[in-house]
Amino acid sequence: MRRNRSPIGIGALIIAIVVVGGCIYFLWPSGPERLVDEFYEYESEAEFGKSWDLLSAEMKLRFPDRADYVQNRAHVFLQHMDVETFQYEVGHSKKVKNWRLGKGGKVHKRAYRIPVTQVYDSGFGLFTIEQNF
Q1: I need a labelling partner for 22 at 20 to 30 A (CA). Which of 29, 103, 107, 113 fits?
Q2: How far is Cα 24 from Cα 2, in angstroms, rounded to an integer?
Q3: Left, alpha or beta for 98 (phi > 0: left; psi -120 to 50: alpha)?
Q4: Cβ(106)–Cβ(58) under 8 Å?
Q5: Domain ranges in the chain?
Q6: Is the domain covering 7-132 a CATH 3.40.350.10 domain?
Q7: Distance between CA 54 and CA 60 in Å, rounded?
């Protein structure tokens, strides 16, 4: 027995797939934004070793010792600032050409500038830090 497929049913399925795909594409963070989100998720959970693991090789030259990075981040944010909670928002990435980490840094033909806003609820009140990642 052969069943006829309704063109309306197939059309509705295609529209549903396009709508869901569009939502995922526009609402889900892109590659660089996803990496930054993962970094700050670890930072917000005080998993500083995991966030250090996500640093680029060039950035690790600034913080060569993982244990020191973890200790310093914990000291500044958890002890010094007495942070109780930490929230962040990752903005949209923008491509940047010929970017370098510092004056003597390697020139990267293509990089991304991603704004990040961090809000710390500390023993001293709310602190908001805005920086490009």
Answers
A1: 113
A2: 36
A3: left
A4: yes
A5: 7-132
A6: no
A7: 9
Distance CA 53, CA 122 (A): 26
What's the whole-model pTM score?
A: 0.72
Q: How many residues does the chain have?
A: 133
Alpha-carbon gap, residue 128 to 107, rounded angstroms: 30
DSSP letter at 127? E
Q: Is 39 exposed, middle or buried (0-12, 13-18, 19+ CB in 10 A)?
A: buried
Q: What is the pLDDT along the chain (133 residues), one digit of tens a residue?
A: 555 555 665 655 566 565 555 444 444 445 889 999 999 999 988 899 999 999 989 999 999 999 999 999 999 888 888 887 789 999 999 999 999 888 888 999 989 999 999 999 888 889 899 999 8
Contact 50, 40 (CB under 8 A): no
Give 59's contacts (C-beta < 8 A, 6+ positions apart). 101
Coil, strand or helix at 55? coil
Residues 6+ apart with CB under 8 A from 92: 33, 114, 115
